[in-house]
Design a protein that fits this description.
This protein has a single domain, classed as Alpha-Beta Barrel (TIM Barrel). 41% of the residues lie in helices and 13% in strands. The chain contains ten helices and eight strands. Strands 1, 2, 3, 7 and 8 form a five-stranded parallel beta sheet that branches. A three-stranded antiparallel beta sheet has the order 4-5-6, covered by helices on one side. α8 runs parallel beside α9. The chain is globular and about 40 Å long.
């Protein structure tokens, strides 16, 4: 069953030939590989990672693009990067809005929990963790418009470090974003429900983090073996660490033996069609 859903999203999701071919397994055996922090700052690594994933058989990747990564250069000012993004979109990879700056400024008064989340867990990158609705709306609207102006079609929004506050999520709904994700689930913003699926993800900032990540993701991969959706989140820096990259490649290769690679948007829209016909076994929690 190795392959991709190549007719999405241009055809209706009641594609009977696809349904007959895979039956209910379409919703049960999916793999979403996402590449986070895609920007001119990480372009060299990203341009290396994508073809390596394609060579494994991942024909659909969700590329999470930061418009102005850490205020260090807007993507639209880099013509080579924009050309590359458009070429990836043309191949079927998904362009996803991933914050705007990917940086959260420190507050004067923060609780211990806030400091732990925004400084230790995310190293200051939880941009949408606690901004208000208007700030979130302005940034997401601007990011989407700029990406569309460059020839892309973002339909989903994923917050940096998956930290999305309630106010920010409300802004996404107002803007008509189709979906968002957090560490432990994929939320269909149109339907107002969440599909549980914890993402594999690696932390490489220190040796002990790399060791723990390898142990944790090996165990998580096993635990999620029967889950309808398997998510693998990659960051550009991962490829610089051979032991991490070897594990990522190995787990993706194993997953592709029984799962179909797709993107977030393709998967969400397919779930809607399957749900409407009672064909999905993936529960969506409100």
């Amino acid at each position: 069953m190795r392959g991709v859903w190549r007719d999405a999203p241009s055809l209706p999701w009641l594609a009977t030939s696809e349904m007959r071919r895979y039956g209910s397994r379409v919703s049960e055996r999916a793999l979403i590989v996402s590449l986070h922090d895609v920007s001119p700052l990480t372009y060299v690594a990203c341009a290396r990672i994508v073809p390596e994933l394609e060579a494994l058989g991942v024909g659909r990747i969700s590329l999470l693009v930061i418009p102005d990564h850490h205020h260090r250069g807007h993507f639209a000012a880099d013509s080579e990067f924009c050309d590359w993004l458009r070429s990836q979109s043309a191949k079927g990879h998904e362009i996803v809005t991933h914050g705007y700056y990917h940086r959260r400024e420190r507050r004067r008064k923060e609780s211990a929990a806030e400091r732990l989340t925004t400084r230790v867990y995310t190293a200051g990158e939880g941009e949408f963790f606690d901004i208000d609705r208007e700030q979130a709306r302005t940034r997401v609207k601007r990011a989407n418009e700029e990406l569309r102006g460059a020839g892309m079609s973002p339909r989903g929004f994923i917050a940096p470090a998956w930290l999305l506050g309630a106010e920010a999520e409300s802004a996404l709904r107002e803007l008509g974003c189709e979906y968002t994700t957090r560490l432990r689930g994929v939320s269909d913003l149109r339907k107002g429900c969440t599909y549980p699926s914890q993402s594999l993800c690696w932390s490489v900032r220190a040796g002990w983090r790399r060791l723990v990540s390898r142990i944790w993701n090996r165990l998580l991969f096993r635990r999620l073996a029967s889950n309808p959706l398997l998510r693998v989140a990659i960051h550009p820096v991962d490829i610089r660490h051979s032991v991490i990259w070897t594990q990522i490649v190995g787990l993706i290769s194993r997953a592709l033996r029984t799962r179909i690679a797709t993107t977030y948007y393709e998967w969400v829209v397919r779930q809607r069609a399957l749900d409407s016909h009672g064909a999905s076994s993936q529960s969506c929690r409100t």
